[in-house]
Amino acid sequence: MKELCGALALAGALVVAGRSAAAQVQARVMAQGILVGIRADPTPERRPITEVRLSQPTAMGVASWRNLTAILTLDFEGLTIPGGELTAGAWGEGFIDRRHPHTYVHEALLGAVKWWGAGRTASGVAAFAGKGFVPFGSDDPMSRPTERYPVNHHWSQILERAVVIGQVRYRWAVIEAALFNGDEPERPEDWPRISGRFGDSWSLRGTVDPLEGLEVSGSVASVESPENRPGAGSTQQKTHVGVRYESRVKDRYAMAEWARTSEFDGFFVFKSVLAEAGWRPGRNRIYYRFERTDRPEEERLNPFRSLRPHLENSIFGITRWTLHTAGYGYSVGRGSARFEPFAEATVGRVDPHGAGLFSIVDTYGKSSVTSVSLGVRLGWNVAGHRMGRYGVALPVGHGQGHHH
Amino acid sequence: MKTVQGSSAIRIVAWVAALAGCASEPTAVPPPPPAAVVTVATVPVPANYGIHDTYVRDGIAFVCVWNTGVQIYDVGNGMRGGSPSNPVLITTFVPNSDDVPGGPQVHNAWWFHNPALHESRYLFLGQEGPGNIGFSSAGDLHVLDVSDLANPREVSVYSMAGAGVHNFWMDEPAARLYAAYYNGGVVAFDVSGTLPADLSSRVIATAMPGGPSATYVWGVQLADGALWAVDMLSGFWKLDPVTLGTLGGGNNVPDRYGSDLWVAADYGYTGTWGGVGRTGVRGDAIKVWRVSGVGDPALVDSVIFTAINTVSDLQVSDDGAFLAATAEGQTNGGLYLLSLANPAKPVVVSTTLVDRGLHTGTIATIGGRQFVFGAKNPPNPALMIFDVTGVVPSSATGPRSSAAR
Predict the structure, then answer these.
(1) Looking at chain B, which terminus has fewer C-beta neighbours within 10 angstroms, N or C?
(2) Among B49, B276, B278, whose Cβ lies nearest the Cβ of A232?
(3) What is the pTM of this model?
């Protein structure tokens, strides 16, 4: 809660700063949430479960003044889904087969951005510091088409860290480097461990966007003990390659990524392949995602919670989740408001990947996976917002701190 | 088969039963009520991850604190004025990681008292590296020279390709070290004399009790002329202590994965592990075996606990009066003391719940009192020392422990 208060103070400061220099400040405030009913079969309770939750309730703000940019995202999942969101295959931060709630302060960053030139030949440099996304991998699933989080969330994004980022863009090539704390949060109120942990991890991401809307990126990262906050756990060596396309009017989107995480010098290796696409003709929106992702199996304290902190460096096997997710939504919103009823379905299977004591049949009763979601996306001013990239790493003209 | 949901009611019943028994002899004075377990010290350790095992002998405690190293405490030896209620740290030694991923990962220890040389020079350390439980493991056997307890030196190491070491037992008069080696089975070493830098030349026997595809040995113990082994996958085995050939047992715990063991006189007690369930069943049981005579150990009883995942450690007291068991996972982790008045039917008489449970517990008699040195699990790991004196009165019928630890 102290963290939330600090973030609200930052938000207040942004408002005051905005008023004092109203003529020069550009600000964008956004909000979203998804009221969703989910039926999943199987679950680790070996029975279908149906539940209704308010997922991804967030309030976001981006304010720019001269060369300075402030970004704040508050996430209230700790209040609306404290027990996580029913998501077969999801894991991380002490949750399993439920996607964990994020921390109350999802992002709180201050940055300085300097551009030279205009249009697609513009170059720039930027630096950001605060809590937020590490320059690694792909955009946050929250800002992507499917409601369901991918299994590879912890392989393809690094987020909610205390991070210092440096960025350089020369025309269509961007290099980002970051130092951060390796520890993941375990509760919505957790704050990154600064003392003793900040700077123990690093990342590099290179991106080229030679054609409008097209990005090709490659990332590497060394993340120290993400799953043990005091630092006793393994260092993760992470690699990610991705291709992303989004049309100028944002009615077409596609992304493909490959990620690899190695622990204990290759003793454990986890891989993921994911491809997704969305198309928005008029008020309609259709989308599809395929992913095949490895997941470590670890001790569970109950069907949906895994032991944190770990006691040692062992796992009980690796499962491989092959999932197809498709959805349709129809937007009835006007102006900045978005009101989109949607339906989404996931089918696939989970298989053992190599040897392990973890038994899929004992845990779930079967190896097939089905999930159906019906819900309504609620949004205000969120169209086009990307979460997970900052400053000059965003395409020219995206708007975050780009002034001439 | 019994289900234990807490000790209070059982203790009351036992106490009433004791009173009732005494009432039949009007001249007898009722025995004093059983003492309670008293926590006499809680020594925090760095959460890195925490303590895995503790070896106590001669008033010295070797506390295995993962990547923090092995911490050597005076807990009653006198060299630093320590006691169980006031452990005094002598030194902390961090062995080499030996290129095992994850660091030194100090897991367990055995302080070798060599009767042939009248010396207590060597401390054997187990390093528990990463593993895929049931299939792969890593970690080496390290040897420290602790002639000067305040200044240990690492003098020897043994590395087995593709497998990692776990718990030890020693035949000290024969200078033979037995090491459980998970998927590497069981390894016996000749540790007589001065040890070379590489212990490979001292390997005298190896065994894979469950075969190449079903061996993952947690622990071993020498008792009554046999080497007993618990294989997490293939059960409770009786091995020849010289050749490590199979004498009996095995493939006898199909319902759960195995964990620790203790054999005392005619009975053996084996724990069960439940990081994941076996056919959906967690490690919530202590199996009781009759081990006397030749042939296979015979299962005679099981004690079933509630709300635990794993029976993480077992030890019978030197006087044979009780079995100390530690448990972890879910809500009922902690220290359980089971009366061995009838060693074939252990009865829980004391339960001390510990948040997040205890990973191990080691019984030690110091200054005439009995203590259990417990390894409290993270997130606030600590060495917890419990005074258990008198909690379970000595019984003439209890199985005397056949080997000191």
Answers:
(1) N
(2) B49
(3) 0.90
